[in-house]
Specification:
About 90% of the residues lie in helices and about 0% in strands. The chain is mainly alpha-helical. The chain is flat. InterPro entries: Hook_C.
Length: about 1200
């Protein structure tokens, strides 16, 4: 008989051990769903209390090994493995969560198990680690603490008695186990009883179970460690994900602000440019008004033309041709072509004049001679004008040279005054220079011999022509000369006005051309921006339409799913009772699937991070290459500076050599001239003092040279230090890149290793799942064999449906495993791509090393150049020392004092010039350094801007990728929903088939019953007919409902398609209309331009006509021609206006008709969407 249990003490013991159970679950990562589903009764054998007790004892008593504890426990029947206690002792426990502690409520409990817990509590309290366990007890409520203390006191009192009666307790425990087995009800399964008998009887089974338990423990430990790692990684990745989301939000805000700023800047620039263009247009209009004023001034000159009417009779035709050529000149833009046209017009005029003169009957010979004289005079005039221009240019040059000579004379006078104070020989040198300058002035004042020859030749020709003309009639010559004078005067006036108008026209045309270019550029930019904005709008509209469609589809699908769920819930209430057995398998599989998906997600994230790191490495490599190029450019500029320094030094040496030669020549001359000065000793003393002063000055100059050399060396050292720093930076960055590549290699190896481990674990899990599936199938087969005898045919059909569903689920899981394998293959491909990118990066590093070697070679060449400059400076210092030594020697020789003084002066001046040149070179080097620094800063700013643009582009790419992933996720969800719909429809169809089969069977049974009851009772016929009618009516109602559902689905799908097609047609029509509007706007602009041109031409023609009418006066021929041309032009302009207006009206009509047709079609499609689908 089972002993009664004190419920209060049992409750306190379970509350005490419940905390240790939770700790064990958290440490080993065992999934516990007690709190989630408290209503489901789960056997207590799922909790490994034996292992918890062993761990507690091993921590409390570290002197004993686990093996001894296990052997001790196995020796006692009370302390067997606690997983087998519920089966052996028939101890069912229902886990219902209590509101206060979440501890399982005790309904029926075994006294042996409670005694074991009491002994464990007493052992832990008596151990060395009892302080921690007492704290755990004190953390409970007061009532529980009191109960536990009573249990501990009772165990301590009975401890001595238990030690004496160990053998007797062993026998009593065995008898209790037997009695418990006898007292169990017969309804319990026979399988558990057989398993218990085998476990107690055979030791081999126990050993096998021990091994399996050890393997399971190891697997649990390994899984717990991996789960802990995955959890930590999940936490880190979540934190990083949150940070990235915050950064992305900030970047979005920054990008939006920048876009707004850019838009405002562009608008402000656009408005400023529009204002500038408007101002320019106003300026052009003012200039055109000024030109109109000039035209009015031209009309005021008609009075002068009236005086010249007799000459206009002969020159009327020439003026007509000139007007024609003016029109042509206005159309032409190049000056050369205009000059050619003018020459051809002049030649035609001359030929026509010759023809008119030949028609004269009285003076044919005079006209021929006059034509020859005219040709000669015109050529002579042209040559004279050219010579005058040349003379003016030469006179300007002569004036410039005279001014330069005057400045030179002033400088020479100043030099003379300085030299007169120093020596008397300077006056002679000044005289020599004056004589030379006088000779130069004489040469410059003469004419150019070529010009003088041309003038003489022209004078000779004029004399010959005069002699020829004297022989002819003087009257005709006087008349012709008068006419020529008049024509020349008019020609000069006309040419002046023509050149003025030409210059003004050129200026206006250039300004107009510039304005047109700017307008064209801004129009292009505005058009590009408008196109981009329109494209963005279209994209946004398309996305919004797609999102709306997706939302509508999602809402419709959700409604359908809700309706289906409402209908299916009633059908699934019966199936939930049978699905509890399969629930544990699905949970384990889902947990494994979630773990695998998490690992896959972590793998993909890490691979993406590695790809991003490789991209950053590439960007850094590009940055290093750019900086390397900048260093190369700086080295090249420095090499150029060094080369320029060499050239300057060489020039200075050449100049010094020339100056020394000149000084020697002059010293020889001065030795001869200065023999009389040797007698004066006072002068010698003064000169000695002067020489001492110059020595002091030379010392000071040498010190300055040393300082300049020191500064140059310091600058060179600074440059070398900067170059060394750049080298160290390059080496450091190369080392960083190599380290990063090594780290990436290690990570790739680790990922491969993990991939192999995951593959092996997945294979093991597949095997386990297959084994579990086989076991479950066996269990189901056993249960089905038992249930066939007791259950009905309907239950049998339902169980078969459940088995088919489980098989389908397992098949889907296997297919998911196949997909996982495919994804692992993709991961391996990505790893291969990463290796290829690594190889490319190594090749780029090799190229960069070669470039670094080239830089080193160039730096060595720069060092060589610096050494040469140092040697040149040392030579200069040695020359200065030799000069000082020469001055010391010259003290003893009195005759050579003046020569030494002059040489010293010259050398001092040369040294000063050298110093100046060195200062200039140093300043130039400093300026070049500043320029280099500015260039480096600019490049850094450009580089920062490029980095900013790269970051913005990367953020945009990340956004696009996220949007793509979002859309792909949405599409996957849609597919998942469609698959669920398909599965639901399949289940419904199966259920319908089953119901139809059941109805058929019921009908058959009813028919059989009716046939049997016809003979016995006539009333049975009526009842069977009623049953048949009800069955048929139910069947028909159910089939009609299904048919209605299918028709509703079909109609809704067709409506959706029609709406989509209608939206597509609307979008197409909108695009077409936009394109048509663009084309029409362009055509309208062209038409407006043509109209403006025609109006301008009309205005010009009217002005010309008025001018020609005023100029011609009584002449009928030119006025008639001009009027005819103007009339023709007016008619052409009117025709153009009529054509343009008709075209515009036609286009407007066609557009209105097209828009009207489109609106009608849209209205028709809105009312009848099915017609659109048919079209």
């Amino acid at each position: 008989m089972t002993t009664k249990v004190n419920v209060v003490e049992a409750y306190s013991l379970f509350a005490w051990i419940h905390s240790y159970i939770l700790r064990f679950i958290e440490d080993n990562g065992i999934a516990h769903n007690h709190e989630e589903k408290a209503d489901i009764a789960i056997p207590f054998s799922c909790v490994p209390i034996a292992s918890i007790a062993r761990n507690l004892l091993s921590t409390a008593f570290p002197e004993f090994d686990k093996s001894t504890i296990q052997d001790d426990w196995e020796a006692r029947p009370l302390l067997l493995e606690f997983r087998s206690l519920p089966q052996r002792l028939k101890w069912p426990i229902q886990l219902d969560a209590l509101p206060e502690h979440g501890i399982p409520q005790i309904i029926n409990c075994d006294a042996n198990f409670i005694k074991v817990l009491e002994l464990l509590l007493g052992a832990l309290v008596q151990s060395r680690m009892r302080e921690g366990y007492i704290r755990d007890i004190l953390s409970l409520e007061n009532n529980l603490q009191v109960n536990l203390m009573t249990i501990i006191d009772r165990n301590l009192q009975d401890s001595n008695a238990r030690t004496a009666e160990t053998g007797e307790s062993h026998d009593e425990d065995v008898i209790r186990v037997g009695t418990c087995n006898k007292d169990q009800p017969h309804d319990y399964d026979d399988i558990t009883i057989k398993a218990l008998e085998t476990e107690f009887s055979s030791k081999e089974v126990l050993a096998r179970l021990k091994r399996e338990n050890q393997l399971l423990k190891e697997e649990n430990v390994y899984l717990g460690v991996s789960i802990e790692k995955s959890r930590r990684e999940e936490k880190t990745w979540r934190i990083a994900h949150d940070k990235l989301q915050e950064a992305m939000d900030e970047m979005k805000l920054d990008s939006d602000v920048q876009l707004l700023k850019k838009e405002r800047q562009i608008r402000s620039l656009y408005e400023d440019q529009i204002t500038t263009l408007r101002n320019e247009l106003t300026e052009v209009q003012l200039k055109s008004r000024e030109q109109c004023n000039l035209m009015q001034q031209i009309s005021s000159l008609q009075d002068e033309v009236d005086l010249l009417r007799p000459a206009a009779e002969r020159t009327g035709k020439a003026e007509i041709t000139i007007i024609k050529f003016k029109a042509k000149i206005e159309e032409l833009n190049h000056g050369k072509e205009k000059m050619h046209l003018l020459e051809s017009s002049n030649e035609s005029l001359r030929n026509r004049v010759m023809e008119l003169e030949t028609e004269m009957e009285k003076a044919k010979s005079l006209q021929r001679r006059l034509s020859e004289a005219k040709n000669a005079t015109t050529t002579a005039n042209v040559r004279v004008s050219e010579l005058k221009v040349q003379l003016s240019m030469k006179s300007a040059e002569a004036d410039y040279l005279l001014t330069e000579n005057e400045t030179l004379r002033n400088s020479l006078k100043e030099a003379q005054s300085m030299l007169n104070q120093s020596t008397t020989m300077a006056n002679e040198a000044v005289n020599v220079y004056e004589q030379e300058s006088a000779a130069v002035d004489m040469l410059m004042s003469e004419y150019n011999p070529e010009i003088s020859e041309k003038i003489a030749r022209l004078e000779h020709e004029n004399q010959e022509l005069g002699k020829r003309v004297k022989n002819e009639s003087s009257e005709n010559l006087e008349k012709l000369l008068d006419q020529l004078d008049d024509t020349n005067r008019l020609k000069a006036l006309f040419e002046q006005k023509y050149h003025q108008s030409k210059d003004e026209f050129a200026v206006t045309s250039a300004a107009k051309f510039i304005c047109e270019q700017q307008l064209a550029e801004w129009k292009m930019t505005c058009a590009m921006q408008n196109e981009e904005l329109l494209q963005q709008r279209y994209r946004c509209e398309e996305l919004s339409v797609e999102i709306r469609n997706a939302q509508a589809e999602n809402t419709f699908q959700r409604e359908e799913v809700v309706n289906c769920e409402a209908k299916i819930e009633e059908m699934l209430m019966e199936l939930e009772k049978r699905s509890q057995a399969c629930h544990f398998i699905s949970k384990s599989f889902e947990e494994s699937k979630c773990a695998y998906s998490q690992m896959q997600w972590t793998l993909s994230n890490r691979i993406d991070m590695q790809l991003e790191e490789l991209n950053t490495l590439k960007c850094r490599h590009q940055q290093l290459s750019q900086r390397h190029k900048m260093l190369q450019l700086s080295h090249e500029s420095l090499s150029k500076c060094a080369h320029d320094q060499k050239v300057c030094i060489h020039r200075l040496e050449m100049e010094n050599a020339n100056l020394i030669d000149k000084a020697r020549d002059r010293s020889v001359k001065l030795q001869i001239a200065n023999q009389s000065v040797d007698k004066s000793e006072m002068l010698v003393n003064d000169l000695e003092n002067h020489v001492c002063k110059q020595q002091i000055l030379l010392m000071f100059s040498s010190e300055r040279i040393d300082e300049m050399a020191f500064t140059m060396n310091v600058n060179r050292n600074i440059l070398m230090m900067s170059i060394e720093d750049l080298r160290s930076l390059l080496a450091w960055r190369q080392e960083q890149q190599q380290n990063q590549l090594q780290v990436s290699d290690r990570e790739i190896r680790d990922w491969r290793r993990r991939y192999r481990v995951l593959r092996e674990s997945m294979q093991v899990r597949e095997g386990k799942l297959l084994v579990e599936f086989e076991t479950m199938s066996r269990v189901f087969s056993i249960k089905l064999t038992r249930m066939e005898e007791t259950s009905m045919e309907q239950c049998h059909a339902r169980i078969e449906a459940q088995e088919e569903r489980i098989v389908a689920l397992l098949k889907n899981q296997l297919s998911s495993f196949a997909d996982v394998k495919g994804k692992t293959q993709d991961v391996s491909r990505r790893i291969e791509n990463l290796q290829q990118e690594k190889n490319d990066a190594s090749e780029k590093l090799c190229e960069q090393l070669l470039l670094n070697d080239q830089i080193r070679y160039k730096q060595q060449s720069l060092e060589i150049l610096n050494q040469t400059t140092r040697e040149c400076l040392q030579m200069a210092t040695e020359d200065a020392e030799t000069l000082a030594y020469d001055l010391v020697l010259l003290r003893d020789d009195r005759r050579m004092h003046q020569l030494a003084i002059e040489n010293g002066r010259k050398q001092y001046l040369n040294l000063e010039e050298k110093l100046k040149l060195l200062k200039v070179s140093a300043r130039s080097i400093a300026k070049e350094k500043e320029n280099l620094t500015h260039q480096i800063q600019r490049l850094q700013t450009q580089f920062d801007a490029s980095e900013h643009t790269v970051t913005t582009l990367e953020s945009k790419l990340i956004r696009l990728e996220r949007e793509r992933s979002h859309f792909t996720g949405a599409s996957d969800q849609k597919r998942h929903i469609d698959d669920e719909k398909v599965s639901i429809t399949a289940d419904l169809s199966m259920q319908v088939k089953l119901l139809s089969a059941e109805l058929k069977r019921a009908q058959e049974e009813a028919l059989n019953g009716s046939e049997i009851g016809k003979a016995s009772l006539p009333s049975a016929d009526s009842e069977s007919s009623v049953n048949e009618k009800e069955a048929n009516g139910a069947k028909l109602d159910y089939s009609q409902l299904l048919e209605r559902l299918e028709t509703v689905r079909k109609t809704e799908g067709s409506k959706r398609r029609e709406i989509l097609l209608f939206n597509a047609t609307l979008l197409q029509t909108q695009h077409q209309l936009m394109e048509k509007n663009k084309v029409l706007c362009q055509e309208i602009q062209q038409v407006n331009e043509r109209l403006n041109r025609a109006l301008l031409e009309n205005e010009r023609n009217q002005q010309r006509w008025e001018v020609s009418a005023l100029q011609c006066g009584s002449d009928t021929v030119p006025s008639a021609l001009g009027k005819r041309k103007l009339m023709e032009q007016d008619e052409k302009a009117r025709e153009l206006k009529g054509i343009v207006s008709t075209n515009c009206t036609k286009k407007k009509k066609t557009l209105f008709a097209q828009n009207k047709e489109w609106i009608e079609s849209v209205s028709n499609t809105a009312t009848k969407p099915s017609e659109c689908t048919q079209q």
